[in-house]
Amino acid sequence: MPVMSRVAAALVGMFLCTACAHPIDVQALSPAPPTILVAKKLNRPLFIVLDPANVKAEYEAPRIEKISNMQTFVTRDLVKVMSEYFSEVKVVPSASAVPQGDPVVAVVKVDAFKQESVILSGTSYTVLVMTWSFALKTSNADDYLFSFAGIAKSKPSEPSWEAAVTAMLENALTGLLDAWAQSGTTEKLRSSATPS
Length: 196
Description:
alpha/beta, globular, 4 helices, Rossmann fold
């Protein structure tokens, strides 16, 4: 009976049941990473390049068939978190669409989604894993001033697929913000800004 109880808990408490799987639309989710308090935003715009080759509209994902509208992660979620640092954040289709002046340019890539098994209190759970990257430089620079490679995971006991993907995206954004805060990139950009 203890073994059966653990199996039942796994099936009810998490998404090990393949029959429950269904596609997830990122546009319908509302990831909410921690709010960052910034005393003064950078007085320069950020342009995020959304290349469909780097961030596809749809991705195959284990157990949930696919994740759709993934580009919303860039156009909504990344724009929101980076707007805490920059005076303006816009998404453009290519680097050639970035205007002249003193802007900052970022590129994003979402590689893939996979699954991992974790065991908590003797019960096996499946978590979703997203690998992705974000890099940023001034428009006239040859090398990136900030480069981040992230591995974001869902929590092992989410009540639904939607909650699992939401948690994974929140963890992706939180990982980026943590790396950004530790890098000192804000002050580097502030000191390198062209005087107005």
